[in-house]
Amino acid sequence: MNNWFKSGSPWIWMTAGSVSVALIAVLGLVALIAWRGLSFFWPADIYEFHFSDTERQTIIGEIYERERIPVTRLSDAGVDISQIDGEFVTRYLVKIGNRELVPLDFTWVLEPNVVRLETPKDLVVLERSRNGNFYGYLHDVLENGESVVTGGADIKVELRKRMERALELRNEAESISKGPIARINYELEQLRLDRRRLELNNSYTEAAEAEIQAQEEALRAEYREVEQTLFAVRAESERDGVIMIDMRGEEVRMSMNMVLDATWSNDMNILQKWGYFFSQIGKFLTEDPRESNTEGGVFPAIFGTVFMVLLMSVIVTPFGVIAAIYLHEYAGKNSITKLIRIAVINLAGVPSIVYGVFGLGFFVYMVGGTLDQIFYPESLPNPTFGTPGVLWSALTLAILTLPVVIVSTEEGLSRIPSAVREGSLALGATKAETIWRIILPMASPAIMTGLILAVARAAGEVAPLMLVGVVKSAPALPVDGNFPFLHLDRKFMHLGFHIYDVGFQSPNVEAARPLVYATSFLLITVIVGLNLTAIGVRNRLREKFRALEH
């Protein structure tokens, strides 16, 4: 036994066991998040609850959660338990939607109070642009207030046809709002700034004013034409309507331009359910959020996260590599260099919120405020760069991840044999040429390793971003069709902050809970995707420059 311990085998097995347990825990956590998140997109059965009491006779909705609770807990809450036998009772959390008709779109249902539970095949769920889902029975489809379900016409086919028409018109209206109207408003704002700039430069003349007014009149005339087109499209989208029978048995009329999708999940076969599942995931990835981020998609958050991480990578990589080259190749081996290395290592342990406070004070207020006074005085007192934005977020996270890149790059430089440097210098190359043509290519895998670690940390940070650029809802992406096309001063959405906002700031906690898991799994997927891309680049570089190591 003593020889076995002295051989080191126990420590090898212990290390392997610890790594295995950690790997299983991580994979189990990811699997749990994926299961809870992806199950949100699966078409759930729609139930019709029938009760014996007179307060509510029927409820229609999805069962979100089942749980068994002690009867004493209900008694303490003031619930009548005279009709309940046993120590435990099952209750259901039911999403009933129809938000404009009921105070809450979730309710608890006790199993003993249910006299009949059904899943009728003709129950339909209407996904709407506001007020959440609507659960009920499809009664009629209207065109200009008149029924179109005549002569044996299939009501489902009529609904689908007119719903697709309304969606096309709705998308056309949205493209007009985000395209020509947004462009005209942007150009009008630029003309206002041009007028203010001329006033500040004391070059405001009647000729300049006449030119600006002519441009404004042309833009306003174009705006009126586009606005008329927009109003016409919106009026066309409101032509059709639908009549539903809700859980109260009453008719509810709504405009077709509110309806995004209609699903008869109780009447779907397994192939239709899988098709619906993937289509819902596609909508989640490509659409904008709705209803205070509790519905719709997360495309702006995906775009903001990836864009900010790429911008941060472009900033941190050259600075980190230059700093590592100086420390390893040029700096002397003295106490000052040791002190700098200790400072760099200690920076990695600073809480991220401290970087956020630094970024807000230095980048936003000091640097951004100075840029506004020098280059954008016509916009003041409204700040351009003197307010949180994607540029300051990228710079703040670049400083946060800089120690990782420096340490990783310096480790890669230290593994390159001195004979390589000496051979290059002996052949007549300068030190700068040696570093640029030989040392850096050989150290590129280590640089990519540092970048991978930086991306993994930066993509998941939330606390500093709350101070320097991220917002709950961004009206426009940092990239659009207006000059200069790349707007680094704009605020942006981020998947990490989106998770925090939906999970802790949402007015509808129960509806938001599945989105928290779905967005968390998406954030993990984005980080893994970025890391795999960087790992692929690192492996190709390693194979390319492997011959230089021998």
From TrEMBL:
GO cellular component, one term: plasma membrane
Keywords, comma-separated and alphabetical: Cell membrane, Coiled coil, Membrane, Transmembrane, Transmembrane helix, Transport
Gene Ontology molecular function terms on file: phosphate transmembrane transporter activity
InterPro entries the record matches: MetI-like (IPR000515), MetI-like_sf (IPR035906), Phosphate_PstA (IPR005672)
Biological process annotations from GO: phosphate ion transmembrane transport
One Pfam family of this chain: BPD_transp_1
Membrane topology: Multi-pass membrane protein
PROSITE patterns the record matches: ABC_TM1
Chain coiled-coil ranges: 156-229
Domain ABC transmembrane type-1, first and last residues per copy: 302-534
Key word Transport present: yes
SUPFAM superfamilies attached to this UniProt entry: MetI-like
Chain segments annotated as transmembrane: 12-35, 298-327, 339-365, 385-407, 438-459, 515-537
Residues making up the signal peptide according to the UniProt record: none
Subcellular location per the Swiss-Prot or TrEMBL entry: Cell inner membrane; Cell membrane
Family matches, as NCBIfam families: 3a0107s02c
Family statement: Belongs to the binding-protein-dependent transport system permease family. CysTW subfamily.
PANTHER family: PHOSPHATE TRANSPORT SYSTEM PERMEASE PROTEIN PSTA, PHOSPHATE TRANSPORT SYSTEM PERMEASE PROTEIN PSTA-RELATED
Protein name: Phosphate transport system permease protein PstA
